[in-house]
Amino acid sequence: MTPSLIAALLWLVAANVLALIPSKDSHWTRAYLLIALGIPLLGWVTAQNGPWVGLICLGAGMSVLRWPVYFLGRWLRRRLPGLVEKGEERAG
After folding, report:
1. Which pTM was predicted?
2. Cα(86)–Cα(72) distance, integer angstroms
3. With bands split at pLDDT 50, 70 and 90, how would you rate the model's confidence at 83?
């Protein structure tokens, strides 16, 4: 196992442990820290192991940090109205 994958697994364990600890700000400060550490780590994993392993690690990170991804999607929909498909507009 490469050092980048070991670091990514440690990041995942740390993210899960941090999620277990109570927080007054709904874990947003920790999420920002994990994102700031995870982006360069993801680049390192991709550089050492290839794009498919990088995509798998990206998916694992997104499953841990699902609320920031959800709110990013909502923000993008507000900023870029062309992202909403025609069928979704009629359903709402």
Report:
1. 0.77
2. 21
3. low
The first and second tokens of residue 77, run together, are 């929909």
Tell me which residue range forms the domain holding 26.
Answer: 3-91
Domain count of the fold of the chain: 1
DSSP string computed for 14-63: HHHHHHHS--TTTTHHHHHHHHHHHHHHHHHHHHHH-HHHHHHHHHHHHH
| Residues written for the chain | 92
pLDDT digits 0-9 by tens, 25-81: 888 889 899 999 999 999 999 999 999 999 999 999 999 888 888 988 888 888 887
User: Taking the CA atoms of the chain, what radius of gyration do you get in angstroms?
Assistant: 16
Query: What is the distance between the alpha carbons of residues 81 and 77, in angstroms, rounded to a whole number?
Result: 6
